[in-house]
Amino acid sequence: MDELILLKLGGSLITEKTVAHTARTKVIGRIAEEIKKAMQIDPDRQILIGHGSGSFGHIAAHKYCTRDGVKTDVDWLGFAEVWREAKALNQIVMESLIGAGLPVIAFPPCAQVLTRSHKIITWNISQIRASLEHGLIPVIYGDVVFDEAIGGTILSTEEQFEYLAGLLHPTRILLAGIEKGIWNDFPRRTELLERITPENTQQFSAHLAASESPDVTGGMRSKVMSMLELVQAGHCREVCIFSGLEDQSILNALAGECAGTMISFD
Predict the structure, then answer these.
(1) How distant, in Å, are the alpha carbons of 10, 93, 100 from that of 97?
(2) Which of 230-233's residues contact partners 24+ apart within 8 Å by CB, and which partners?
(3) Which end of the chain has fewer surrounding CB within 10 Å, N or C?
(4) Does domain 4-264 have CATH number 3.90.1300.10?
(5) What sign for the dihedral angle of Cα 211, 217, 222, 224?
(6) Peptide bond before residue 187 is cis, with ω within 30 degrees of 0
(7) Mean pLDDT, the chain, as a whole number?
(8) More confident residue, 108 or 193
(9) Chain-centre distance of CA 179, in angstroms?
């Protein structure tokens, strides 16, 4: 397999995360064009795109506590509502990517993944492998999934990346949000961490804050720790957390630049 990059478009980047059901369509459109440029520069580069749910899925999930499990009739109605919201945002993202001329194909987690106590136990990724091999760009996203232990739950894009990285071994994982990287003094935002490794983790972990807006899958702390585990396990060479708000930021990141925080083994 050629170089494979997993690119996540964070919910805070592609939606107004504190305003329900509000997509940043101009931002999504610009990102789609930058991905297209990156593919034109290097046609052999393989990309798998994931995106968060932002103000679509997270607000409904928070209302019904879907991440914690699904038991009652009301819980299941909430489960279906979160599914509708996540699907609605995915449709907006897909239309922008298709409009830019990208050969994308969506793989909804709800229809493919089974978990047990939040951990993926069943996911046949043969179709994802085949799409990559044939020059297509798979798209996944934060979604509800059925869970053998707690009925149902929310599966974040990072959790999906973590599972896929163990099987696909991407060269890089790019996490694009609205923050310039990981701040050692969040929310003051005056001290940006340029690199995180297993050796310096303890220097920042006590200061690593969760998201300011609703994020039922754990916020920034869980994202950083899960990505650090990936590089420690050798499933990915490096992870870059950066802001996707600036023009050319996605294009530059796909080309190898990390203008934010790099997570690596050393």
Answers:
(1) 15, 6, 5
(2) 230/161, 230/162, 230/165, 230/166, 230/173, 231/263, 231/264, 231/265, 232/198, 232/265, 233/166
(3) C
(4) no
(5) negative
(6) yes
(7) 91
(8) 108
(9) 14
